[in-house]
């Protein structure tokens, strides 16, 4: 019983924090907040990573749709965004995966409010190196100037860059296979 009383007394004396310890913790938390807060509230990094993944997915979707439906899917890549269609004039749009695009304000403005497979580049980011091309029924990429069906494609490997967040992300479409990475 004596040992239990000693432990209780010892615990009561050591249970609190000193004023120095409390002030030190507040200072460290303040420094961490000052460094982390600007990074946390700057969305460009998150937007760039998200859009790069979204662009890759949309290009893969175009290729898979062309293979599944046995007809060309045209891809229009501009500095404003990406649009998929079944015709070279981009009138007959490909339905977006899940029936709708991201519906962000930029996408709604770029895609004229439609729910077709179309995505806009987020504000503050720049997409460069884009061209208009199509995937044929076998999934191979061709330039829109190539006459279908043709055995020879003038499409070479396409490298698009997404920048504006302090880093550069590259999206590549292989010229021979159409593989997107």
UniProtKB/TrEMBL annotation:
Q: Which UniProt keywords apply?
A: Cell inner membrane, Cell membrane, Membrane, Methylation, Transmembrane, Transmembrane helix
User: In what way does this protein cross or attach to the membrane?
Assistant: Single-pass membrane protein
Stretches assigned to the General secretion pathway GspH domain: 52-175
Annotated TM spans: 20-41
User: Quick check: keyword Cell inner membrane in the entry?
Assistant: yes
- Pfam families referenced in this protein's UniProt entry, alphabetically: GspH (PF12019), N_methyl (PF07963)
Q: Classify the source by domain of life.
A: Bacteria
Q: Is Nucleus among this UniProt entry's keywords?
A: no
Q: Where in the cell is it found?
A: Cell inner membrane
Q: Which residues form a coiled coil?
A: none
> Hey, which family's this protein in?
Belongs to the GSP H family.
Its protein name is: Type II secretion system protein H
Tell me the organism.
Answer: Duganella qianjiadongensis
